[in-house]
Design a protein that fits this description.
By secondary structure, the chain is α+β, with helices and mostly antiparallel strands. It contains four helices and three strands; from the N terminus they run αβββααα. The N and C termini lie far apart (34 Å).
Length: 100
């Protein structure tokens, strides 16, 4: 899990995940995809700070929260592929189209 941050993680991000003090974050979106993130800067719980921000952005942009009605507990592939091009600007200010 996400150490002592597990409760906040599932409420805020809503993607089952495992982190490690090496800076990795592995997320699984049941029936959809897996996400691997690496960021060595850790928060007070031993979770990667930038990795958490990236996962929060992905969860919101792609509707991956498994606990919210309308969230991607089923198949959010249309939201996923329609939103991927806009994700670059969330992380580095770039507006480069990453889908093509």
């Amino acid at each position: 899990g996400m150490y002592n941050g597990a409760g906040k993680w599932i409420v805020d991000v809503g993607i089952p995940a495992k982190s490690g003090v090496g800076g990795y974050l592995m997320c699984i979106c049941p029936g959809i995809c897996g996400i691997g993130i690496f960021s060595p800067k850790l928060d007070q719980h031993g979770n990667p700070t930038r990795g958490i921000l990236a996962a929060e952005s992905l969860s919101a942009a792609l509707d991956l929260h498994v606990l919210r009605k309308g969230g991607n507990g089923g198949d959010g592939s249309s939201a996923m592929f329609g939103s991927i091009a806009s994700l670059g600007s969330s992380f580095n200010g770039s507006t480069k189209n990453v889908s093509g």
